[in-house]
Design a protein that fits this description.
8-stranded mixed β-sheet; 69 strands
Length: 1020
């Protein structure tokens, strides 16, 4: 019993009655709830939950039997709390979460990495006072926190670090805060209030000492008190009992918690009967139980988040309910997709039975809403075909659909005029006994005969259906078709028909007529149009962007509900004659384009889209727009080390070791209305030049960062178009040990030591040679002659080796000047090859066989490169790199490089068919562009090239396919006339970017002729 009941709020019902007209009935037309359900499988903890709160960031916390659950709209985390169970929660203005547990209480605090953990205050409690059970109440007053258990009340002062304890003679009830005064019921003295440091008896409150009190709080006429079976009002001297209409229901259901929502209705969570919703006059509006979709009938707590959502904790999980919307579908008797919604307010007889009732036309018929404790729709007899329009008239309700025009009396329909299909009906503003109907067969003028509607005139279609109809202020009739707009004048003896099409500014496609503020407008695929008599054409209606619009409806406060393919929103007038756009207010329903919209005078909006249900939306139940922000929730390296866990502010900027240079950033924007529709942008300053694209991904990975300072920045955008402020995480990646300052100092000392040792060794060697020089002059003379001959041989060998390493012109420059001046080449073609399966071969083949095979393949490549006059640069493992167009530029560099690549493919295929040695296939990639070239190194110098062209050529190789030559868009531009190529489209490379690529399939038939004409010589 003690675990399943919490303080109730009976008095709020009386308060609402005084503040809201008693005629308001929140729930008589409310359907089923829109809920988000979180089961134990979702949050990975016990089914039993006790409390819910939200911190200033928007992050939710829940008291669970296994601890505190943290939910940011994306991920759940579990935080151990005290002895395990978190029975109560509270959040102060600084965002500190206080936790009540079984025999313990404390708060959550971040550690040095921002990871929240539980900090117990039990050490401040004397040992003799630690014999208390569950802490069921936590209240904040001033700069103090009050923890209430049945055995004691504790007051913690965070600023002073002191604890005050009160103990009852027998037992306490639950703490209550009313008008900044603390109240509690003690079992021996009844109702008491805190006065300074003393709990004073409340006059007349001694009658409640049997401990039946469930709550004390402020009512409409003073303080009120609720027991399990009655409600009392206190006038300062005595308590007076008064009853409520649903006493017996709430008594049997056992109240656990109460919340009053906008409009005055009360939401009551019970321990046995699910969720009870009461109207402002305390009458029963709804009962939602497990049968209606709740997780459980045993509820424990209610909490209203800053977006207006109601969180319900129970013995089976957690739910969030959107109080601003309910829905009707097949379960409530409404079948099919809704085409039209209307409130019948047009009958001349105010006592008509269907006066004020809501009707919905669907693709299966017409339905009427029966309001009550369990609102539901009933079908209208006689109209079980698609019903496209329902209109109230002074002579009753009219409906148009399959079969013609129907008159409606409560739940019965009868055919007034039979025809193929009626799509739209318009009342005449000049004659209350006249209506116009548009349909597949034509345009009809209908007149009330006193008992039924009779057809007076008809305009037949000329092939196009008449879809919508409206009468302008002059009495002319406008009709739309998929292609044109017609204006019909039946005021004159000879009817006058005008057509408006593309020449008059009317786009093709479906269009509809609407009357907004007395102005006739047309919605089209190009926006909203208005006709100008002066210009004799249609033009854009001021204030609307040129986007497709299907429906425009005006609400009582001048706001416009606008919808089109994939969107809907409200254009709300503001001060100064301007308007503000509010996109997707029905986001939680998953509705995008609305097929039917009915704004009502009290602010309620009925809407339906392609989803197959009817939405009842009450904007008055939506609180002011809550702050929207994004939070960085975790920063973790590939090794598992956590740099930040999402809470608090780090004291110092993280400095991460080089081994932690691959990081995952997790983030969330606590937009609890529909977290999955939030989009994010990220940027890593120091590595990225711009923001990423908007994405619903809630994490991003950065890999292999070089040492340096970085700033990770993230921002979010919710579906209402609000963009959050940026959240920044600065950090430093340290250099690896071999590039640290002390490593470089060590290298310098080693180098100096090596030079000193070499000099000493050389001096000693010279001294020995000098001592023996006179003795061996003759021998040395002979040796010198032999050495001279040997030097000539070695020079020739060195020259050959140098030419094998460097291009001839580069080698000559190096020999002549001792250096090579770096060169820039505006356009060359770089080629990379890579053997497929080499890594597996290297693990399975003997080393000697592996090297022998690789030598054989590369020797063939060397011969091919020489054949085409290209330059081999180097081999890197099993990769072979060459360049065409340097050191001597050539116009045919790209064509020659592709020819060489194709010849390499042939060589690899021949080697793979020889039946011995390693059998590999090869990927070849080419890209053309500018490079810089030069010689690097002193002892083991090498000729190399640099630039983005080299990187892109490597990407072409890695993004290619075995046995194929993959070229970039630039190379394809240079060789497209010479080779047959297969376009691959945009291919994502290893750097996560998309680039256009092509496979080369072979030379064209006119290749040699075109080569001679283009370059003036024969191909190699």
């Amino acid at each position: 019993m003690s675990r399943s009941t919490a303080a109730t709020c009976w008095c709020l019902l009386a308060f609402v009655v005084s503040a809201v007209p008693a005629t308001a009935q929140w729930g008589r037309e409310a359907g089923s709830l829109f809920t988000q359900t979180f089961t134990p499988k979702t949050y990975q903890a016990s089914p039993q939950n006790w409390a819910a709160v939200q911190d200033k960031r928007g992050v939710m916390f829940f008291g669970n039997t296994e601890g505190v659950l943290e939910y940011d709209g994306v991920t759940w985390r579990k935080i151990s709390a005290g002895t395990g169970t978190a029975t109560s929660l509270a959040v102060d203005e600084q965002g500190t979460v206080y936790v009540g547990s079984r025999g313990d209480f404390g708060f959550l605090a971040p550690d040095k990495t921002g990871n929240l953990h539980y900090v117990s205050l039990l050490s401040h409690v004397p040992v003799e006072a630690r014999k208390f059970a569950d802490v069921w109440s936590i209240l904040l007053l001033g700069d103090s926190v009050y923890f209430g258990s049945y055995q004691a009340i504790f007051r913690w002062s965070p600023r002073l670090g002191t604890l005050r304890i009160w103990k009852p003679a027998r037992a306490y009830g639950r703490l209550t805060l009313v008008n900044r005064v603390l109240y509690v019921v003690s079992r021996d003295q009844g109702l008491q209030r805190l006065n300074g440091e003393i709990w004073d008896p409340v006059p007349g409150g001694e009658q409640f000492s049997p401990f039946e009190v469930r709550a004390v709080y402020a009512g409409s006429a003073g303080m009120e008190l609720a027991t399990r079976s009655a409600l009392y009002r206190y006038d300062g001297k005595a308590f007076t009992k008064f009853s409520a209409p649903v006493d017996e229901l709430l008594k049997s259901s056992m109240i656990a918690a109460v919340k009053v929502i906008e409009g005055g209705a009360a939401v009551v969570a019970t321990s046995r009967g699910g969720l009870v919703i009461l109207n402002v006059d305390s009458s029963l509006a709804h009962i939602y139980t497990k049968e209606q979709g709740l997780l459980s009938d045993s509820l424990t707590a209610l909490y209203r988040d800053r977006e207006g959502g109601l969180w319900v904790t129970s013995s089976s999980g957690i739910e969030r309910i959107d109080l601003s919307m309910t829905r009707f579908s097949r379960a409530q008797g409404l079948n099919g997709s809704v085409y039209s919604i209307v409130r019948n307010r047009g009958a001349r007889n105010p006592g008509a039975r269907n006066q004020g009732q809501l009707y919905a036309g669907t693709d299966t018929g017409l339905f009427v809403l029966r309001a009550g404790t369990v609102p539901h729709f009933e079908p209208v007899r006689g109209l079980s075909v698609p019903t496209f329009v329902v209109v109230p008239s002074p002579h009753g309700l009219l409906a148009g659909g399959q079969g013609g025009l129907y008159g409606i009396t409560d739940t019965t329909a009868s055919v007034n005029y039979a025809t193929d299909v009626i799509y739209d009906i318009a009342l005449s503003a000049h004659d209350p006994d006249k209506v116009y109907a548009a349909g597949r067969g034509g345009l009809y003028e209908m007149r009330w005969s006193g008992t039924a509607w009779k057809s007076m005139r008809k305009l037949a279609t000329s092939g196009d259906e008449f879809r919508t109809v409206a009468e302008d202020s002059d009495g002319r009739i406008w009709v739309t078709t998929p292609r044109k707009i017609l204006r019909v004048d039946w005021r004159v003896p000879e009817e006058k028909i005008e057509l408006f099409g593309l020449e008059q500014g009317v786009p093709e496609g479906f269009k509809s007529l609407f009357r907004i503020g007395g102005t006739l407008i047309v919605t089209t695929t190009s926006g909203v149009l208005q006709y100008s008599d002066a210009a004799s054409r249609f033009s854009a209606w001021p204030g609307f962007p040129p986007r497709p619009v299907s429906t425009v409806r005006e609400s009582g406060n001048g706001a416009l509900w606008i919808t089109g393919e994939g969107y809907h929103g409200v254009l709300q007038p503001t001060s100064g004659g301007k308007s503000e756009w509010h996109p997707m207010p029905l986001l939680r329903s998953d509705a995008t384009e609305l097929y039917a919209v009915l704004p009502e005078a009290d602010g309620t909006v009925w809407a339906a889209g392609a989803e197959g249900f009817l939405i009842r939306y009450t904007p008055q139940s939506v609180p002011p727009r809550a702050p929207f922000g994004v939070e960085l929730r975790r920063v973790q390296s590939q090794s598992g080390a956590t740099a930040f866990s999402g809470a608090g502010t780090l004291a110092t900027q993280p400095r991460l070791g080089y081994r932690d240079n691959t990081l995952r950033f997790e983030f969330a924007a606590p937009f609890l209305e529909d977290p999955g529709k939030v989009e994010y942008q990220v940027q890593l300053e120091g590595a990225d030049s711009d923001w990423s694209k908007w994405s619903t991904e809630t994490h991003t990975d950065v890999t292999h960062l070089f040492e340096g300072s970085y700033r990770f920045v993230v921002r979010a955008r919710n579906p209402h178009g609000v963009v959050s402020e940026e959240k920044v995480f600065p950090f430093v990646i340290l250099a690896p040990w071999y590039r640290s300052w002390w490593a470089w100092l060590t290298y310098a000392f080693c180098a100096l030591g090596g030079v000193w040792g070499f000099v000493r060794w050389r001096v000693r060697k010279l001294e020995q040679e000098k001592a023996h020089l006179e003795v061996i002059v003759e021998e040395r003379t002979t040796e010198i002659r032999e050495q001279r001959d040997q030097i000539q041989v070695e020079e020739q060998r060195s020259q050959a080796l140098l030419l094998n390493i460097l291009p001839a012109s580069v080698a000559d420059e190096l020999k002549t000047t001792g250096t090579v001046k770096p060169q820039h080449y505006e356009e060359v073609t770089v080629c990379f090859t890579d053997f497929v399966g080499f890594t597996l071969s290297s693990e399975e083949m003997p080393a000697e066989a592996l090297v022998s095979s690789l030598h054989e393949y590369f020797t063939n490549f060397d011969e091919i490169v020489v054949e085409f006059g290209l330059e081999k640069l180097k081999t890197i493992g099993d990769s072979y790199m060459l360049v065409s167009g340097m050191p001597q530029p050539r116009a045919s560099h790209a064509v020659d490089a592709v020819l060489c690549a194709l010849k390499m493919l042939e060589a690899v295929e021949q080697l793979s068919q020889r039946g011995e040695g390693a059998i590999w296939s090869v990927r070849i990639g080419l890209h053309s562009g500018p490079v810089s070239a030069g010689v690097v190194g002193v002892r083991k110098f090498a000729f190399d090239i640099w630039g983005n062209t080299v990187n892109l050529a490597s990407r072409m190789e890695s993004s290619g396919a075995p046995g194929s030559v993959n070229i970039s868009a630039r190379t394809h531009e240079l060789v497209a006339d010479f080779f047959d190529c297969e376009a691959r489209g945009l291919v994502q490379t290893k750097d996560k970017r998309e680039r256009e690529m092509y496979f080369v399939r072979g030379p064209r038939t006119e290749f040699r002729k075109l080569y001679r004409e283009r370059f003036g010589l024969d191909p190699a």
